[in-house]
Amino acid sequence: MELLARAQQLQAEGCDVIHMEVGEPDFPTPEPVVEAAQAFIKTGRVHYTPALGMPELREAISAFYAEHLDAKVSADRIVVTAGASGALLLAVAALTDPGNEWLLSDPGYPCNRQFVQAFGGRVKSLPVKAQAAYQPDLSQVEDAWSADTKAVLIASPSNPTGTLIDDERLDGLVAITRQRRACLVVDEIYQGLVYGRPAKSVLARHDEVLVVNSFSKYFGMTGWRLGWLVVPTMLTRHIEKLAQHLYIAPSTPAQHAALAAFSSDNLAILEQRRQLFGLRRDKLLAGLQGLGFRIDSKPEGAFYIYANSEHCASDSTELSRRLLEHSHVATTPGRDFGEYLAQQHLRLAYTMSEARIEEALDRIRLAL
Amino acid sequence: MELLARAQQLQAEGCDVIHMEVGEPDFPTPEPVVEAAQAFIKTGRVHYTPALGMPELREAISAFYAEHLDAKVSADRIVVTAGASGALLLAVAALTDPGNEWLLSDPGYPCNRQFVQAFGGRVKSLPVKAQAAYQPDLSQVEDAWSADTKAVLIASPSNPTGTLIDDERLDGLVAITRQRRACLVVDEIYQGLVYGRPAKSVLARHDEVLVVNSFSKYFGMTGWRLGWLVVPTMLTRHIEKLAQHLYIAPSTPAQHAALAAFSSDNLAILEQRRQLFGLRRDKLLAGLQGLGFRIDSKPEGAFYIYANSEHCASDSTELSRRLLEHSHVATTPGRDFGEYLAQQHLRLAYTMSEARIEEALDRIRLAL
Prior knowledge:
Two copies of one chain form a homodimer. With 368 residues, chain A is α/β, with parallel strands linked by helices.
């Protein structure tokens, strides 16, 4: 946050800052989505929708799972929310009583911890290793388990590492949580943004998990603030009540816009963008390796590289500061994602053009 | 909720239901707001804004307080949120640790209680009396106070009663909460919707309160899901961190739309609507009194009448059910707003035309 503020300050002073610290695609909202929003807003009839979202949007999401991800997810298990944040909020609110414990990956998305704590829950970190694709080992989860453990949260593709969970590990985590009457929550916010392999959802294999997703990343709709939560059937009533109480309804213009997100025109645009992201990843990955960074587990998705910087600098926070001040390249130090080997890592986002990535690599080379 | 579902079912079956149960104005989004949204969305650049909201929108809200409500509220105390729900969420998250206690009016907006409980807090109800304009007495607050009390929440104009808090009572509540190092939170979601007297904000008299507001009601922007929270200066850092963690940013299209909400063109439209609401209130108030309902404290704002139905029926829930089934007039029984004298009261919203209100009154007459 401090580095983000400094990056913005430098930019305000006229510096040409390359923003590899923010998790926002550079693309505008796709044209079909813009047009759908325009057509709806023109009517002026921007009233509340049902708390769980417009039935036709929930059906559209359900159809997307069936057609593109080989997953049967009935619309009544899908809750439309104000961004993935709204989905995570619902999940944490539903599963957490004061004193309950969540197991979270370290490194991981930093806000997750805050959600759990805001609801009076406790967080136990699972230090995840590069050789395990930065996903928790089953034995780790078993060892960390306590009588208070209520949920395990994983992310695939993961932020900050871009790594995926494999089927075997996933099945194991589902078995452990089910057996102990706890819940597995899977952050699939970057679902669809995978390179060199087909997109997947854990919902193709399992019904008894909660899945957080978003229109922000793959669908390129960040500022619209729309996401969704998939819940097991037995939780739908409880979640509906919470949604009605905690946020009335998600944004109506965003929901109408999102209906166009699943059109074939739009999906073609998203596929083009995905391919561009893949090229950018390859460029940044090779470039960083050429500069002496080590990528200990290949990032297969999202738009981040979690680079081991120990051969370049002894402290990644210090390195991040140096890159910003001397090269005007903004990055995120590992410290923002946890404690485990945090000082040796840096997250870089490839949410800019290949030319811009090359420019960033040149600047980093000079700074090192 | 059960009655709401039944009302929707009847409507789906082709019945002409008059919806006096929902708190949503019948007006569309005002034209200047629609135009501003259209112009912005066309650019496609719908990216994240800062977590606290766009600086120019926070300035515009600050200017609105200065020009129309005689209140000095600097923009850095204003946090733009996903509806008033987002504002309430932030306030409760900021002020509540597990076991903390909130004092809430009974009758009151039912979700407030859920927010506090979701964050591990406890709720103590203050049964508020008609002769006190359904606002808590100072002695009530003092008697209910415990070592765990962290906040008192009032609403002015109140939902479900439409009543306002007077200056003297307000000053007393501020003094009590300040002295005991707790917070007074004021729900001003219906601010601007007052009839027969000028609109006011508690912020004209006090800086050390939290105020929840919304673009939904007075500004007629329900489906856009945009609100704001005003916080005392000493809480701004804490609230900013929470906002960054809990929801990233409010809707970007909604924020651009809301910038046009303060234009003189738009305020002229809102003033016309306010006058219409005033006429509707007068009509419904007189009509209900003519039917034998008692209005024990005159509603001065919002768009609700909290009618004492004890001369019409012994149980307002039963009456509400009867009115729906036999007259197709949907109302909300007092039970939805608390326990205190709930069985003797019914809330009716006047969010429809005068002709429609007359029709509703005719139907209720027949049912009684």
